[in-house]
Design goal:
Layout lengths: L2 E4 L5 E4 L9 H4 L11 E9 L5 E5 L4 E15 L2 E6 L2 E5 L5 E5 L5 E9 L7 H5 L4 E4 L4 H13 L4 H18 L18 H12 L8 H8 L3 H12 L3 H19 L4 H7 L5 H12 L3 H8 L13
Antiparallel strand pairs: 1-2, 3-9, 4-8, 5-6, 5-7, 5-8, 5-9, 7-10
Helix pairs in contact: 3-4, 5-8
InterPro entries: AraC-bd, AraC_XylS_family_regulators, Homeodomain-like_sf, HTH-like, HTH_AraC, HTH_AraC-typ_CS, RmlC-like_jellyroll
Protein name: AraC family transcriptional regulator
Keywords: Activator, Cytoplasm, DNA-binding, Transcription, Transcription regulation
């Protein structure tokens, strides 16, 4: 069913993809079959704010956890306003009125995790006691955990879903301890390049129809390709090329289930001009054709809507 939503700049847009992060928790469960139990994660993404970006007076029906990768912004929640900067973790609850904007002339790059526990009790208020600002964590393990969670959320399979849930719970446990900003960093994964590696990941996800542009990635990060590959794998558990392949597979699944596009059109959207090459790649990586994947999701014969893949 087609739905209407709003872009970050407030313009109306229409699409066929459900915005799970905006739904009531119980309304998301059918679409979250890969999560067998709580916490259910409905959104995990990196957002690079455009110039003069912001919103106000918004409410969600789920929890949201945010980490500022770079830049400065202003976070408003329940009548209070907070300045947020690199390394800050902040949090808002279901139905709390909130807003967020990039400060004029400042960059703003952040990670957002939206999640819920369905109807299961979870002692978040015992943990956070009404807090919204949870501390500054640049250079700490939390920074790496946010980055790893976002990377694994885009990858298929139960092990990655379990890893996402484990990382989210680890983050919640760590930030509940409220260390003072500037305290000695805990044992962290690679942190000095996290922001640049996030830019690489974001660049790839936003250009699935294009081949990897190595010179552009080197220019974007200031890192050589030979150095970037092991650093990316250390941070996200996969090389940039492997991440591109899995991101294409994930996007193809979304398009197949949520749009009326033909297999050829889906292949084009994810960087394959030859539908047969796309089909071979998809089957090699998932163990099934895209037709079989669609029919495995729906009780009725979903394949009747699609051209046959040969």
């Amino acid at each position: 069913m087609e739905k209407t939503s709003f872009s970050p700049k407030g313009t109306v847009m229409s699409n066929l993809e459900p915005d799970l992060a905006a739904l009531h928790p119980q309304e998301t469960l059918d679409a979250l079959r890969d999560f067998r139990f709580a916490p259910y994660i409905t959104l995990a993404h990196i957002f690079h704010a455009p110039r003069d970006w912001g919103f106000s007076n918004r409410t969600l029906k789920q929890y949201a956890l945010n980490y500022v990768i770079d830049g400065k912004g202003e976070f408003a929640v329940e009548g209070e306003t907070h300045q947020v900067a690199k390394g800050d973790v902040f949090f808002y609850r279901p139905y709390e009125t909130h807003g967020l904007r990039a400060l004029p002339g400042r960059p703003f790059l952040s990670i957002t995790i939206v999640f819920h526990f369905a109807d299961l009790p979870f002692p978040l208020e015992d943990v956070f006691a009404g807090m919204h600002m949870l501390g500054r964590y640049n250079g700490r393990s939390v920074e790496h955990q946010f980055a790893e969670l976002v990377a694994k959320y885009r990858l298929p399979g139960a092990p990655n879903r379990l890893a996402c849930q484990s990382l989210l719970l680890a983050i919640l446990a760590r930030v509940s301890q409220q260390p003072a900003a500037g305290a000695e960093a805990d044992a962290a994964g690679p942190s000095s390049n996290v922001a640049r590696l996030m830019l690489v990941k974001n660049h790839i996800e936003n250009r699935l129809e294009e081949p990897l542009d190595v010179p552009e990635l080197e220019r974007l990060t200031g890192l050589t390709w030979n150095y970037l590959i092991p650093e990316f794998k250390k941070a996200f558990g996969t090389t940039p090329m492997q991440f591109l392949i899995w991101a294409r597979i994930s996007k193809a699944k979304e398009l197949a289930l949520q749009t009326p596009l033909s297999f050829g059109e889906i292949a084009e959207r994810v960087g394959y001009h030859d539908v047969h090459a796309f089909g071979k790649m998809f089957k090699k990586k998932t163990g099934m054709s895209l037709t079989d994947f669609c029919s495995s999701i729906y009780v009725t014969d979903h394949r009747n809507q699609w051209p046959e893949q040969r």
